[in-house]
Amino acid sequence: MESANAYIITPPSSVAELSPPLTPKQQAESEAYISDADLPPALNPDTDRPVDADIEDNYVQRTLANAKPKPPITWSTLLGEINYISTALIAGVPLITIYGAMTTELKWQTAIFSVLYYFFTGLGITAGYHRLWAHRAYNASTPLQYFLCLAGSGACEGSIKWWSRGHRAHHRYTDTELDPYNAHRGFWYSHVGWMLVKPRIKPGVADISDLIKNPVVRFQQKHYVKLLLTMGFIVPTVLPGLLWGDYRGGYFYAGAARLLFVHHSTFCVNSLAHWLGEQPFDDKNTPRNHFITALCTVGEGYHNFHHQFPMDFRNAIRWYQYDPTKWFISVCYALGLASHLKMFPSNEIKKGEYTMELKRLERVGEEIKWPIDSNELPVISWTSFQEQAKERPLILIHGFIHDVSSFMDEHPGGKHLLSKQIGKDATTAFFGGVYDHSNAAHNLLAMMRVGVLDGGMEVEVLKIEEAQAKKKEQALAIVKDIENEDERRVAHEKAMQDVKRIEEEMQSALLRSPPEHIRNKKAQDYFPPSQQLHIRKAK
Ligand SMILES: [Zn+2]
Ligand SMILES: [Zn+2]
Questions:
Q1: Per the record, where are the segments of Basic and acidic residues compositional bias (predicted)?
Q2: What is the H or E stretch that residue 356 is in?
């Protein structure tokens, strides 16, 4: 057994000076909001250690393998499976809103106040609950923390402690059964379903020992119901009442209708943000980026980025993308209320974008028909090329023999320029001698390849070798046809003398014609566009 303090390692004195002071021991709180009993405890109450301090390396696999999911909900078991507090809140708010909208006049002052109160309580969730407490994306001064705590309480989405624990589990076990709002269970389950009924499998463990020690989080946890009622309903009712005499409008519009929008706006981060949009940073899991989601969620719509870089205080990294939560945190930073805004290095962010862009290009490349690989084409001698060019229009360019019959009439420079190159090496003319062809022309030409010329061009040495080999073959062939053994021996001796003479002739011919290939420099250095980019997979 390890001792309770095994995880606290005493640092050397030089480091100790730089380390933050140890936080005094706090009693773990058991108070909670909405089905807290369904979540694992935040701290081990006996030792005050993070719940995952001794987590096994195979925790996820083992937990999923051993989990005994509750049986599916049926009509007969439904009543016992409902989370009554959250269901009453989620179902009651729209009913109150509809009744209020049908019976209450909307004053312009109340309308403006409701929108402002929507952003105030929305930011409490996005800048407070989410980026500050769940992700520690920046440090907030105590006044800012109380401001965000009050604002977030007005959104009526549970305490910071409860919300952050679920959200940390969501990031840690994204798209698995241990994720409390697993997007694979469908849009509506991840939107609200997970709050209406008890979870089928207990969500995975997530440490929030840092939050349990935070005085603001503790303050909220202690007074949560009072704060919820005050910030959720009393303030939005009383302020319009005192300022312009509209208590009723305040209650129905700034209270209920505003709360309905705040609820579904933040619920969209779990549903819409895992369902709609692009994946420019990674496609391993469901999170996606979309402007519409950003609009609906006070800037939490760049969720593909967020799941890749969860501790970054931004969701949107481009200046033109809509992320008011980021703007709010930046203003707080400018005012000295926030510090240590975390940003992932842009070099690491670019790696993700680059990888996804390559994947996209690969898919484009797979739809393109590429020319036949040179290894699959027949190798043809110069003489054979000459003979075959009498039957069909074959032109040699850059070592490849092309059948241009389908292109004779299409050639932009005219048919006559192709006709005069049939059976010839047109490399120099093609590479700028007559016209410096475009990359498109190179690509098109490559599709007409029918063979590779032995030696790559008209080479004297190869022609000599080919002719001499033929002569040797003929000389030896005569011997085979002679039936009398003596005669055959004599003929064989003569044939061998002939072969020797042919070889000597070839040697002197080779000396006269040096084997260096004088190549077209431009053609030698040329790579087709597809190879220049190095994107195509090697076969
Ligand atoms: Zn998510
Ligand atoms: Zn998050």
A1: 514-524
A2: helix 346-366
